[in-house]
Amino acid sequence: MLGKKSDFALRIKNNPYFCTMKKDQPYTHPMNLYPQRINEEGIVVFDNVKGLPSGDKPFTSSDYVICIGHRGHIELMYDDISDFSEQHTVGVIFPNHTLRKVSVTDDYLATLIIVDSSVLNDPLIQIIKQMRYRYEPHPNVKLDKHEYRIITHVVEGMREITRLDLPDRRMLMTRLLEFLLRLLSQYRKSKLNEAVSDKQISMRFHNDLKQHFREHRDVGFYAEQACLSTKHFSAVVKQETGHTAAYWIHHQVVVEAKMLLHIRHDLTVQAIADLLGFEDQATFSRYFRRETGLSPTDFRTGGQTPKQ
Prior knowledge:
Layout (H helix, E strand, L loop, with lengths): L4 H9 L16 H4 L1 H7 L1 E7 L9 E2 L3 E8 L1 E6 L2 E6 L2 E5 L4 E7 L4 E7 L11 H9 L4 E3 L2 H20 L4 H24 L7 H13 L6 H7 L4 H12 L3 H19 L5 H7 L5 H12 L3 H5 L8
Antiparallel strand pairs: 1-8, 2-7, 3-6, 3-8, 4-5, 4-7, 6-9
Helix pairs in contact: 5-6, 8-9, 11-12
């Protein structure tokens, strides 16, 4: 923890986005209170976070979210994977993944760093793209006390930049965010004994998938790009990422489909099917239901029965 408990409370109260709730006052998630600030400022720190912005309903964010657990425990469904956040755990959530609360303890408390999607193209933080394959299948990293203390000191610097409204605020916040992400990568690498050189095939696969998933959903195509047999390619991808190549292909299609259904209400389901390369709406709907347990229309209107 950050020194004494009272020291931590004092620091987070210096955050302009910290608000103290009375016991009988309904809790409002800060992402619901300050959506315009996220868009305008690009990087925002929220303290005293107690759950998901959507409550018990599924939540899909178009922003990049870093969640630092201080106390308590929350159990979640991350897409179709069971996950959690607890004390000294940092979760790195990429855009367009769906979270659903399973359970949460009364004492759960976290800090969120919200990064607007417009910031993700900043050349200073291209490390985010390099981290994607490590964190998308397993978004959490458990910190020891020293690592947690260092991470929270970096976040305190971000709070101070906001509190003082320093010139070049966005550039300073971006620099600290890059530093924080590099620390997290190093802490995670030391725990999992990961090395960038061991990830070359999956990194190439990731890049190829981003470019071609609308036209090619067969593993053989991506194996050919890597000059490997389909069997060997699939084995290497699973070893490097924890999931098969087929899983990642379907995952990419579903994440993109969820994003379009969630934020592009100007598009019909047929138009989204066309954008994703499906021959018609019926084929897309069958595919989406098979992968998620929901029809595209049910997902768009807030259905709560994802595939387990």
